[in-house]
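Posting this for the archive.
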Amino acid sequence: MNRFRSILVLATDEHDLGPRLERAAALAERNNAEITLFSVVEAERTERRIILQSGDEFDVRGYLIETRLEELNQLVASLGDVKVTVDVAAGTPFVEVIRRVVEHGHDLVIVPFEETRWRRGAGGSSTAMHLLRKCPVPVWVDSGSDGLSRDVAVAVGPFDTEPSGDSLNVTLLELATSLAGLQGGTVHVIHAWRLEGESMLRRGRHRPPAREVDEMVELTQAAAEVGLERLMALQPAMDVPTEIHLVKGDAGSVVPSMVARYRPGVVVMGTLARTGLKGVFMGNTAEQVLGSIDTAVLTVKPRDFETPVGV
């Protein structure tokens, strides 16, 4: 299944681009896709105009863009037969990436981890988090690790009452299955369920009888099982090993725990929090997961998402 046809790879000064570009090339080959290697010279570095003693004005922006283009073209030349388009813009990185996605129709963006000592994984990267919140197409945050597992984990839920081919969960499962199939790996489908407020129901002053709380827990688990069964039934049969993990608990804790246990090469997940603003933004669960794992992450937004970034 050719899920991606036009892949944008963000090149930054701080990271070794070679391994990321090689992984993008492998993905492009499997999907018969094109690659664009894109870099952004940040605006504050290009606003200056330097007047030389001769009276001539030195074009700082033009020099930095031209130098970066030359560097990237040299890197691309070393890849051999891989066809890559190179482009450099000036501005704020996440804004320029989104603008290029909208204008050129890219359907996947690959960016690096930019870990800090305060947050792990994608949660430590300002550019990545902006893109995860606001980019209209799937964003793959590359972990930069070698020897990645071929397995793919996908976090699904909450479930739609009547799931359809347009639902985000279906898209997530299709992507995860496709990736695992292309790589020869196993799909780990993860869903965390819980009875909201169970602890208070069991300890509150006017708490209901324990047997009633137990029944509510059982009904909640049964609803999760039915939702997952309906979702899996919508997935066309593929010869991909699949393991189902229906785990009681909060998704923000369950997903990192399962990722640590099974060590997939990539985690596929959605951004689910709806707001009164344009589009859909990262919810607390997604933020918690992204700040707790070091694995590569592929995030997907609902089909009706509209980026708040003006083009």
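The chain has a mean pLDDT of 82. The first strand starts at residue 6 and ends at 11.
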